[in-house]
Amino acid sequence: MTAAGLDPRSRAREQRAWYWYDWANSAYVTTTAAVLFAPYLTSVAEKAACGFVTDEDAGEKCTTDLHVLGLSLSAGSLVFYIVTVATIISAVVLPIVGAVADRSSSKPRLLGGFAWAGSLMAALMFLVAGSNWQLGALLLLLATLCLGASLVVYDAILVEIAEPDERDKVSSKGWALGYLGGGLLLALNFVLLSVMSDNTELAVRISLLSAGVWWAVFTIIPVRGIRSRPPVDPVRVPGDGRAGLLQASFGQLWHTLKDLRGYPVTLTFLLAYLFYNDGIQTVIYAASVYGEKQLGFEKSTVLMAFLVVQFVGIAGALGFGRVAARVGAYRVILGGLFIWLLVVVAGWLTPADNLVLFLLLAMAIGVVLGGTQALSRSFYSQLIPRGREAEYFSLYQACERGTSWIGTLIFGLVHQWTDSYRPALLALMVLFVLGIALLVRVDPRRGIREAGNELPQVV
Description:
CATH class: Mainly Alpha
Transmembrane segments: 78-98, 110-129, 135-154, 175-196, 202-221, 267-290, 302-321, 328-349, 355-375, 395-414, 420-440
Domain Major facilitator superfamily (MFS) profile: 265-459
CATH topology: Growth Hormone, Chain: A
Largest sheet: 2 strands, antiparallel
Protein name: UMF1 family MFS transporter
Oligomer: single chain
Main location: membrane
Strand content: under 5%
Number of strands: 2
Number of domains: 1
CATH architecture: Up-down Bundle
Distance between the termini: 22 Å
Number of helices: 17
Order of helices and strands: HEEHHHHHHHHHHHHHHHH
Membrane topology: Multi-pass membrane protein
């Protein structure tokens, strides 16, 4: 019997439905999280911070510091601190989500619930205006948590709809469609920002609303197109069957965290992924702020650079998938991380107002971004035991896109200490170096066997 329990044609139909969630959530990830909301919320926070200046101090330079719970926080670092807090919360919440999902007989409906809650938070960002940074901070926190929860379920479904030898290809196609969807909405918003250049703030708010609506509408396709399946041998824990789903899920979480020590290769890969993916996510998350605040480009220019990333990323994801079919996902991921090191150094060296170099940097990011992330997802799916995919993917998702915290904390602190984004960007190299150092210790064949899974033809 196949992994999906279906003939190849039916399985392919479910895979096509699964791809659409990458298309759906990428609108938020690209338009809101990566491009527009970070610099927009930073500007709102700076406006609020400057409001603390009194009339007699009006001639003095605004310090752009926010005062929160007695602490003085740089407005320029606010977004990175919010994402840091969101990921710390995710470390507690998402494993519980994964445990519940593993015991759920309807993962597609669970996916839809989290996705539609997140899309509502994303759409409500339209209301963030003036100096109301608190509302923006709350919505960003909640949207980030909902996105992470939905992706836990989404990634776990990959194992149910794809055979081991299919997963690199299926994961890569999902990422490619995500780049296409995110890129198309970003292009439409680029036109909107150009047409409404005399009212940029309203154009940004409309773009944020469009991302939330896009996310909600296209989530309907995977929810309706993927069939529900019963759990596959969920781990029995004390209280299971008496205490209810949530309490049993806490028990399963504790069991999995202890049991993870029995899968040392999986644990090593998770640690490597924690570091290198934090670096990737922070580079992407910080790119719009870096382009506007450090390199001096207009919002429309930064948006154009992200369009380049999106559309080059389609070819990058598919190309990396083809290379992985020949040499294995593990080797391709490792090679991609060395390219990321070069990208960080190139970004640090890029001079202000040099559009050509900025766009070349965007192209380099596009080539390597989708490939490393898509193959990391499919490679990890080979290292986890059957029946516990969602809970294991919840650990993976805690450091997935939009939920990194080590990198955002480093970036925020270095900016606050130096008042410059250049050293903050360069400091992210340490995450890629640590990721590479851990990844070279991973033995793919041993890890797949330890998890009790079938070895693909190419490892």
